[in-house]
Amino acid sequence: MKVENTLMTVGNIQSKMVKFAIPIFFGSLFQQLYNMVDAIVVGNYLGQNALAAVTSTGSLIFLLVGFFGGMFSGAGIVISKYFGAEDSENTKISVGTAVSFGFIAGMVLTLIGTLFTPYILKLMGTPTEVFADATDYVRTYFMGIIFIALYNTASGIFQAIGDSKRPLYYLIISSIVNIILDIIFVKDFNMGVKGAALATIIAQAISTILAFIRLSRVNADYRVTPKIICIDRDKLSQMLRIGLPSGVQNSVIAFANVVVQSSVNAFGSAAMAGYGAYAKIEGFAFIPINAFTSAITTFISQNLGAHNTDRAKKGAKFGIIFSCVLAEIIGVVFVLLAPQLIGIFGNDPNIIAIGARKAYINALFYFLLSYSHCIASVLRGAGKSSIPMFIMLGCWCIIRVLYIKIFTAIIPSIDVIFWAYPLTWFLSSVLFWFYYKKSNWLE
Q: Is the pTM of this model over 0.90?
């Protein structure tokens, strides 16, 4: 291999995982700025209804993007396995298949997002005063979704081979572009929510182009050239076997969140904006944990690919403990600063009160959410992605939705919806703990 320094099969375990996770953390931080800046600019220049339109559509966007995101994770694990085993030919074939799949996925998402957005928003019970802006924002966003699909493909390739720095560089550039264009399109050009979505598309296109320029020039087995871009049936089958459960899990959980969002919508636009503002802040709060779970998956898949089972076990243990402690520290900080953080999106006291209330109920239980994600990442890295799918579908979808529908009918309070999250995090953590302790996930 030409880039052995990126391998996670050698060297100090803690150092390798932390060094891998840090660039992902900063990259995710800048990526999260995309929607965050959209919400801040829209909330301050276009008002409450526009803010509700932008923040409340996150679950719908993830419903469509999440499926293919799960599929991309399968591609990354396959590439990582061959890279860890130093199998040059299969690494090349896997990279070509991943890029081909990313392009196809982007085209499919464009069609689905632009054609079916109004119908899905109606099913969500989106209020009339928000509906037009929500439709414009989501449709515009999906017109450029192919760039997001291809960037996720490129980023997945970099992460699979242990290089988490390159995606960070590209995201810093595109995030700066996004902030500048957001202000220009919304404030100066009066383009409304369409301007916010268009700024995101242009910025993402820049990061995608930069990533593929690098991948086309690198002197390594994961180099992307026209001759390797094709679908290999065997590699695609492996990617689907690992990625399909994650994709189904993401989509069904996102669908459950759409159902939850429809319950929130029943409490009015202030509740929608407050709930959505909290979601934006929580996205930032959980970035360090997501970065470490990515490190866990890559570490496990590379080391199992190289048959280093003892090293894989040690890496899993360190990752789980570190992530859970970090999650709880973040949760405490979030609780202490909740009103100020929610207030970034505007000074409406009702919105701030609702967003802060959700933080008070949810944030101190982040260690449970972290534990579930960590075990799921370990299992996906080991190629056992069906187990996380079944546990999360059962707890975070079926049980969560049933709880909300039953108890909001008995107690018509938005707190009932907020409590659904820590309760189902606890249940999934218990199930994951039993499986992790009792099964031989290394096989």
A: no
